[in-house]
Sequence to fold (220 residues):
Amino acid sequence: MPQWAAQELAKLGKISLNEIGLALLVATALGLWIFGRNIADPTTVAFVAIGLMVATRIVKWEDVLGNKTAWNILLWFGTLVGMADGLARVGFVEWFAKLASSQLSGFPPVLTMAVLVALYYFIHYMFANLTAHAVGVMPVMLAVGVAIPGMPVRTFAMLLCFSLAIQGVITPYACGPAPVYYASGYIPRGQFWLLGLIFGCVFITALLVIGIPYLTFLND
Fold:
């Protein structure tokens, strides 16, 4: 392996000016993303960096146009994020959550908690961003939970937070990396949705069956 790596490095030759320029642009962009939020918008930084790469011929425009996977992710993910934001803005998600939770009055608090967590989990089918989901739906769910007599609010809140960590598996747009995995083409579209549903059900079931008694014990 070391011999093969040495041969491959020899084939590459010395570091070129384009490679040095690319390293400088990437380092600058990362620095602005991390420390320059008050100086430049992250999206602007990305567009400027790409523009400079094309202008300096570090990357050819033909290469940019030919990257179908990247364009597919950009258009698809951007559209879904916009749709999710629109649903939150018009109040559809809040209305749906309140409508569903209103049907749970009169049930035992633990059962109600499990149903609300599962509802919160599967509502993520409407979202292409975990942050937007948490900001738009979690306050509604917490308000509903607090209003239910006998609800273990601390356990309920922790379950809602923990469910965010397992929502990214359910759809090709459920989280940031999901469109990249989906666009690789390794798993066909139908299988991706089916496997997302299967593993999503397994994960939320495990969270409720194990998490509710465990967290209840810790919070008592």
Remarks:
- Residues 2-66 form one domain.
- The two ends are 56 Å apart (CA to CA).
